[in-house]
């Protein structure tokens, strides 16, 4: 029997009113009863048709089964209304069928359950229920309320039928995937034309150390878009408060900065704290030259030649460069010793402490005081003095061994010559 | 079977040496000197080897980390334990705690902070309490704890 | 009487010294173009003595527990005076000894010194080679570094592939289901007590048999000499051959000194049983040919597990090798050609598989 559904023709396997013999009917009834027992779920006639349709109406049973809502026992009707157990009433408006849901109505629709704490408690007691109220404070939410349907709604980030928990690595809102999800709009220059904001954030972020930590090193504690901008209440942090965002993780740097002369200077100039020197999205691995008067210097952006700031910068940079050089020299000599077979494992381990000291010195930079940086560098210098000495001693030992080898070879050679001569003598 | 006389045998000729005595001396020097010197060069390392070095502790399971009055209360010391650094803390109350100084996040060396009386990792701001338990920041696991025994004047640290 | 003569007379009155050393005084060694090959056996013996000496010295400082083994070898290499020398000589001499043992065995094969009445000498020699490989395998684990740990894991797993008794053999070798500190203790016991004991007995037998039957002459040279009697040459063992042998031994010592000083044996990193195996684990070179063969055999050959087939094949080859003199076809002149061919195939296979295994990733 053919039916027309939303403009496309579909063949149905079973229509009420078809005449069948009694045994067939009994068997069919028996089967009908078995099906929910076998599947353990409420019958879903929607999928019977929609699995055979083309995009955008296509949804197979497997795809739907992957959805967290389906796994919890909800059906199409939970959002779209209608009666999934019947063929006649599946899309009957009298049965509550809503059909395609308008974008502007989506947050309210999801919020119907997800803002109801008592309801959600039945499924996942630890799930938050403030998403909708947060969304309303966000840029997306405010614009949607003003009538702009272009902004993100729930389904844009969480996907429509393919919704998985954020902890699932396949989810579009898993930390590993969030940046990509945001970039679907925010990296599309055409789509964002009307809003006048840049679309380079994703490209910038992909170059950053945070992205590297997350995507390459697999460190899930590394920040992604939502870490700094919020997820449901998404909005840019704002110039005055962005440093609070950074200091959530980078506490010590922030504390030092607060005590430094830059704090007042940046605030009065309206500069965005950490972002001034480190950028917001394209946060690259810092280079010691950033605090110097050399090629990659950032200080020279504001400071002029001869002023106290540049003097301090030069001092700090000299300290850092000195320690870095010493570490390199120690590493070279230890590598040379190790290559010629000397045991320098302990010194190589000690050298790690010097590298730690350099890291601490680079943190101390944020106080912008050369003497504090010098303190940390001094600890590293003590270590490199020790490791360099170990390296020279190892090389000295190596030469001593080679000298010993030469002597013993000479002695053995002499004995060999003596033996040869003796053999020749007694046999002539 | 070949008879004895038909077989040529390489053996000492028994003839009196026809080489001049100066060459004999050279021979004797090379051979005698060589053998004595070579035996000496084998024996000398062996004899030195047999003398045990000053430090007999391998430092794997137990190490003397410090002496009793070396550390003031609310201070700490990094010492070598096995092949990695370890931390000995003397708390403000005067008690000793010892643990691994290798941060469980990315293996930086942690340090003791007098001001907060906590253990801190400068690399990514990991914080541990005085028992080594990871409190905040990226470290996923606590620091490995060691036992502290005070024997006389020495503070011995042993694997738990 | 000179002092030497006095000592000899004293010994003679108590031990029958003169009678004891009389055979040595008359002992001769055949002297011909191929007699340089005769040195290989003596060099192997010399290297074994070096192993025992350096091994005993290492015993004074080594600690055979999983906790301290690595650090004790590190201690020997860095803290003990000349410890680095003793340890490097022990490691290098082990490799050189296995090489000369193989060379000695193949030279005996190609010079056909295994013929009657020397079959038992061959048998004891082949067993000694297997013991040397056992020394190598057990000793390799003792520093308890990452490479050794995983090489032992793989090696004992291969042993476990032998049908029927394999799992029991693996448990026996490992001292448990996995490679642990128990394995280390066991291998240490094998390396310093069990294997040396068995080797002493077999070596004594091997040397006694060599002494009993004298040095064999290759058949071709033997035929030549039968035709032309006056060409036959012998060399007195004492002092002529012995002096030459001393020269060979001193040269071996020089080689060891150069290797130990210029290419010291590395330490690696301490074994961590919980870490994953590093890529490209390979056994020591003397096992490479077997290892590479097993890698090349497909997973299943006619429904038999590939690795089992490989292990059985090597077992069969080893058994055949042991009884080679007894199964040599006796047909007139050409019977030995089968053995010669087998020997050439074996040495070519081992050499090429070793190179292949070394170069393969």
Properties at a glance:
heterotrimer, B: 160 residues, alpha+beta, six-stranded antiparallel beta sheet, four-stranded antiparallel beta sheet, 19% helix, 34% strand, C: 361 residues, mainly alpha, two-stranded antiparallel ribbon
Between the first and last Cα atoms of chain A, what is the distance in angstroms?
A: 120 Å
Can you write the helix and strand succession of chain A as a string? EEHHHHHHHHHHHHHHHHHHHHH
Secondary structure: number of strands of chain B: 11
Number of helices of chain B: 1
**What structural class is derived from the secondary structure elements of chain A?**
mainly alpha
Please give the most extensive interface between any two protein chains, plus how many residues each contributes.
A-B, 32 and 33 residues
Overview of this structure, please?
The complex is a heterotrimer of chains A (428), B (160) and C (361). With 428 residues, chain A is mostly helical. Chain A is built from 21 helices and 2 strands. Chain A has a two-stranded antiparallel ribbon with strand order 1-2. In chain A, strand 1 and strand 2 form a beta hairpin. The longest helix of chain A is centred in the last third of the chain and has 57 residues, at 370-426. Chain A is flat and about 125 Å long. Chain B is rod-shaped, with a radius of gyration of 33 Å. Helix content of chain C is 70%, strand content 3%. Chain C has helices at residues 3-15, 17-26, 39-59, 69-78, 83-110, 119-141, 146-159, 166-174, 181-213, 219-227, 237-262, 285-296, 306-322, 324-327, 336-359; strands at 28-30, 233-236, 300-301, 304-305. Chain C has 361 residues and is mainly alpha-helical. Chain C has 15 helices and 4 strands. Chain C starts with a helix and ends with a helix. In chain C, strand 3 (300-301) and strand 4 (304-305) form a beta hairpin. In chain C, the strands form 2 sheets. Chain C has a two-stranded antiparallel sheet with strand order 1-2. A two-stranded antiparallel ribbon of chain C has the order 3-4. Chains in contact: A-B, A-C, B-C. Strand 1 (8-10) of chain B pairs parallel with strand 2 of chain C, so a sheet runs across the interface.
